[in-house]
Amino acid sequence: MKKTDRKTRRKNIMNSFKDKKFKYGGYATLLTAFVLAILVVVNLVVGQIPYRLDLTENRMFSLSDQTEKVLENLDQEIRIIGLYQTGRENPMFDEILQRYRRLNKNISITYVDPVKNPTFSTKYTKDGNNLREGSYIVESDERFKIIDYYDLFNLRSDQYGNTHAESLALEQRVTNAIQYVIADKLPVIYTLEGHMEQALPVQLRQQIELENYEVKTLSLLTEENVPEDATILMVIAPQRDITPEEEEKIREFLANRGRAIFMMDIVDNEMPNFDSLLKSYGVALNKALVIEGDRNNYFQNPAWIVPNMESHDIISPMRSSKMQVLAIGAQGVEILEEKKRSIEVNPLLVTSNNAWGRTDLTSTTVEKEEGDLDGPFNIAVAIADKEWDEKKGEYEETKLVVVGDAEFLNPQFASIGNSDFVLNSLNWLQDEQEIIAIRPKSLTSKYLTITAFQKLVIAGVAVILIPLIILGAGFVMWLRRRHL
């Protein structure tokens, strides 16, 4: 009986393998295992592909075209060193930096633990202080640049005095640092003084220095000429005129491929030497307060102008980013009909046709009066004077940017787009169009707003409809198998 029972059980087991339920169950198991194997293989293959798809709204993890151009021409080894405790590296920053490495194999990304290596920073600091954790070092064989952790963000204070990160400036800082460590010569900006000029705001000066410029002051009353290392001459709201001797020194600088930016406020006194200098490059100041008559082109006050942006290398990136600038108490910059054929003047910021120029600066009315100038007005222009040099066998190009407003530099308006305009202008003046518009990316959270009805529909789909579909599919499958 025992042998018979064993044979029966063995036979039953063998028959169970021939059962339809077992066959379908086996097929399902094999199919599941096959799909899992495919997923594992695909995941391994995809992990080796360097391309990453950035689906964030503001392309947070993508590099700009300007950065790609810089990396395309990079033929030096660049080391980017992040200071983080082991295991505490910032994954978002690392993903962005790895994109630099993927675009150019001359770039390496490494991390150093400042706790385990406390003396590491002594090589990079003159005063012996340790670098802040979260900072980065970008270095070549020639020089290095430190990017402090707090420079990776643009901070903003709210009405309660609380500070929070408004935008991420990692790409801007790293690309500028790469430009710095590979540069043969660093650009120098001289700000003119001695005529009651306005000082360069501290915040803007810091931003300019982060763009790899060195900022110095210049008095042409004591200097024989504009220094040879000057890349750009910056004139900010002079209240008195330059002397004929100073004018001649500036002319000599500009004639030799000079670059300059003039930000001119309205003044009561005459400045014939400044006027003569600007007229020789095809422009003149209106010396009338511009008042905007179109409600869409001013903010709160008709004298607080939000000008239209024209098409130019300085402006185009700002237009694509939907930035705006604010000009307060501006005067128009007129483009003269009579000028040298080699001079090209392009408007940058322009008022509407409904604007007018108040010639009586003592008037308190906001209405247009007799004698006022008709608009539109150019608030800012870009000037290029290109002439052929027979001796050098090449073109010599002089560039200027003239803005009829110096309140433009007020730090209160830095977040609007005014600082971007100035920085873009400086980069255009020194022929660095590839770094124009590498600007911080917003970290502002955007919330999804839905109505009560939309909430009800979403809840019904998630809580009722989807479960019913799954149950219905299971019930149909059960019926089909039952009748097999």
What would you say this structure looks like, in words?
There is one protein chain. Strands 8-7-9-10-21-20-17-14 form an eight-stranded mixed beta sheet, with helices on both faces. The two termini are 35 Å apart. With 484 residues, it is α+β, with helices and mostly antiparallel strands. The protein has helices spanning 2-17, 20-48, 65-72, 91-103, 170-182, 202-210, 244-255, 272-279, 316-320, 414-429, 452-482; strands at residues 78-83, 107-112, 136-139, 144-147, 153-157, 163-168, 188-192, 214-218, 232-236, 259-263, 283-291, 298-299, 301-305, 308-309, 327-328, 331-335, 343-350, 356-358, 373-374, 378-389, 394-403, 441-442. The chain is extended and about 125 Å long. Strand 12 and strand 13 form a beta hairpin. The protein has four domains: 1-49; 52-184, Glutaredoxin, CATH 3.40.30.10; 188-429, 3-Layer(aba) Sandwich (Rossmann fold); 448-484.
Summarize the structure.
The protein has 484 residues and is an alpha+beta fold. The protein has 11 helices and 22 strands. The protein has 4 domains: 1-49; 52-184, Glutaredoxin; 188-429, Rossmann fold, CATH 3.40.50; 448-484.
Instruction: Indicate the low-confidence ranges by residue numbers.
Output: none
Beta-strand residue fraction: 15-25%
- The strand count comes to 22
Using the coordinates shown, work out and report the CATH topology of the largest domain. Answer: Rossmann fold
Distance N terminus to C terminus? 35 Å
